[in-house]
Structures are given as structure tokens and as C-alpha cells.
Amino acid sequence: MSEADQQAQVMARIAAAVDRALAVPVTVQLRGALEYGIASGLIPAGSQLPSVRALAAHLKVSPVTVSNAYAALRVAGLVEGRVGAGSFVTPGASPTESELDVHRLLQAQIEDLVEAAEAIGLDRRELAMRVANARGRRRSLRILMLGIFPEATESYAAILRTHLPARDEVVAATLAGAREALPEGIDLVVTPRNVQAEAQRLFPAVPVVGMTFIPTEQTRIELARIAPEARVAIVSYFADFLALMRAGILRFAPHVSASEACLWDAPEIDAVLGRCDVLIYATGAESVRERLGPGQNAIEYRHTPDPHAIRAELLPAVEAQREAPTPMKETSGEDSRQQLVRG
């Protein structure tokens, strides 16, 4: 393609991008069209731009308008003037091939947006106004659900995922695992209140939300089915959880009047189990089931994040962290392409 043909193509693209009906000044539109052409590689590095007079005549605008647009591009370092030769795209102003892929993908998405707008009767001026006023998508977060037991912690993480956008990542880890290998890239930590202090020590620079947990629906159903005359043994793995567990059982099984509570490894555990009709054990104390005899039943006291606490405590903390400034990092062309593909 000859230089004259190339310049003719450039002028045609610029003319198509400039819309006199818009409230945006023609100089601003012209500068933006040229910047896009350079950034997208449509106007390659080192290529000569049309002369001021030629482009002004093609666009039917004042030469001063074109001259001002060229001057702004020179200030931005995108264009350089050569005495007696004209204006040229600065070497290095055009993108690499991977960056070109990003721009091509972006252009395709812009065209899809224009087509979608036209399908609902939205003209380009209204579309441009909406784009100009649009708020950029807030950043996605990597949230850590930090617990004690692997299976229970993963189940908590699965519940949290249902309350968050798909773009947010919720990962699960135990305290023991985090002590050995601290998860990286965490924006927010969620944990039961009884281990919140430990979580804050492990992640001093990351916000930690201590969540309230309640018995799962299945656990509540099984508690309600306990016969009023049944003798109940309440067994916990952790001493500081025993009182909370007992309070939950009294809340959801207030009809139970005869109960004893102890830790799974307490000296009196066998005696307590021998006197019970129903064993209610916390996650982590599963081994005590093996000591039960015929006619004795067992209920695992499983927890789930309190839906009210999720709405009142977790979601506001998530939104606050989403709005918090994040350190800028260099993004490769491939990273940008992947972000565009994910939308």
C-alpha cells in the first residue's frame, strides 16, 4: 500500500469517528480518534500523518482545529514534528502485538455495545453520555475463609460464595495450614469469632471479619426431634466452644431438660456417654461416637454462617474493601486480554 493510500485510509477512519452532532468539541474528538488510531496500531509508529491543510479540507474544519489536535498529540509524546517533512507518529507509540490483540478485542466489544444500544433504540449520543458517566467495574476480591477443620471450613466457603459476585474468589484454609503456608493475595479474611484474634495475628495487614455462626438447618431439625425425656451429652473439641454450643442447643431444643457437657478428652467422658440417650458432638469430636452403645443416638452439631451476620457484617466489609485503594501493578497484554475476555 502506497503512502498516499495509507493516508487516505487514515483520513477516512478519522472522518468516520468525528460526529459534529455531539456536544464534544471537534478538536477533542479529532485528538481522541488519532490517539485511538495510534494506540490500536491502525496508524503505525513512524508513519506520516496527513498535513494540517489536507486533513482540515477532508473534515471540512478549520486548519486551526487540526493544528490544535496535532499540538496536543505532540505534548503527549505520540507525535513528533519534523521540519520541512510534517508530523509523524513517534517510534514506540504503537503497541506490541499482544497489546494489539487487547485493542482488537476491546474494539469488538465496543461494536457489540453499539449494536446492543441500537437494538433498544438508544442513539450514539445517549450511548456516549452513558459511557462517559459509567462507573468502572469495582475490583474483584480474593477472600479467605479461615477455619479449624478442613471439611467444615470448605462448607463455610461454599456458603459465602452464594452471597458474593462470581468474580470474587473465596478460598478456604485452616489455621494449621495457614501457619505453615500463608495464603497469598488475600484481600479480606473471614473467620469464626473464637479464632478472630489468631487470624489477625496471621494477617496483620488484612481486614479480618469475625463471623457469628448458628446451627445448620439439618442440625436444628435433629435437635427439635429429641424426645423431651432424653438424657443428652454435649461434647466439644474446644473448651471455649463448649459454652457456645450448649447455649445453641438450649435455644433450638429448649424442651431438653437433662444434659451434661464435657470435652471429648475429659476424664469423665466415658461416664457422661454411658448415661446419655443422645450424644450431640461438635465437629472435631467425631471419635466419641465409637464409644456409644446400642440404643444411643448421635447428632453432629454443625454450624453455618449466620445469614443476618452475612448481611449486616460481612457484605459491608466486602464493599468497603472493594472501594479501598489497591497498589497498582504492571499488567501485560495477555493479562489485559484475559480481563476483557472475562468481562
**Would you identify the regions where 5 or more consecutive residues have pLDDT less than 50?**
327-334
Beta-strand fraction estimate = 15-25%
Rough outline: rod-shaped
Radius of gyration: 33 Å
| Total beta-strand segments | 12
Number of helical elements: 14
Task: Explain how this protein is built.
With 343 residues, the protein is of the alpha/beta class. It has 4 domains: 3-89, Arc Repressor Mutant, subunit A, CATH 1.10.10; 96-137 and 331-343, no CATH class; 142-214 and 307-325, Rossmann fold; 217-301, Rossmann fold (3-Layer(aba) Sandwich), CATH 3.40.50.1860. Helix content is 48%, strand content 17%. The strands form 4 sheets. The protein has a 4-stranded parallel β-sheet with strand order 4-3-5-6, with helices on both faces. The chain has a 4-stranded parallel β-sheet with strand order 9-8-10-11. Helix 9 (196-202) links the parallel strand 5 (188-192) and strand 6. The protein is rod-shaped, with a radius of gyration of 33 Å. Mean pLDDT is 83; it is low at 327-334.
